[in-house]
Amino acid sequence: QVQLVESGGGLVRPGGSLRLSCAASGIVFSSYTMAWFRQAPGKQRVLVAQITRGGITVVADSVKGRFTASRDNAKNTLYLQMNSLKADDTAVYYCHAVLDTYTAYWGQGTQVTVSS
After folding, report:
1. Full strand arrangement of the beta sheet holding 18-25
2. Number of CB atoms found within 10 A of residue 13's CB
3. pLDDT digit string, tens, across residues 52-89
4. Contact at 8 Å (CB) between 28 and 48?
5. What are the angstrom distances between the C-alpha of 31 and each of 71, 72, 91, 110?
6. According to the 3-state scheme, what is the secondary structure of 44-68?
7. Contact 72, 15 (CB under 8 A)
8. Is 61 left (phi over 0), alpha (psi -120 to 50) or beta?
């Protein structure tokens, strides 16, 4: 059974930092392109950062310079380091794993709230 379990969300003040983790099981983690998406209330789910199995990273313009995605294939874990957080970063953050057109999985999400 495939599981993607996010953790590390919470309440943080503007300007603060959080580190999200996504622990994967039931997949050959190193074969998957991994990504973080987020969904704010009333808005569509959007890509935040993606890291391929080869380690190539793409980051959304809205978080460039503040967020960094990384992966540890030995630990089957994806990370998102979030610095200089803003109120606009408030959302549910989801982990996503893609192998090919037919094989993709989502985590259950973790809430990040940026507020003073």
Report:
1. 3-7, 18-25, 77-82, 67-72
2. 9
3. 999 899 999 999 999 999 999 999 999 999 999 999 99
4. no
5. 12, 12, 28, 24
6. CCEEEEEECCCCCEEECHHHCCCEE
7. no
8. alpha
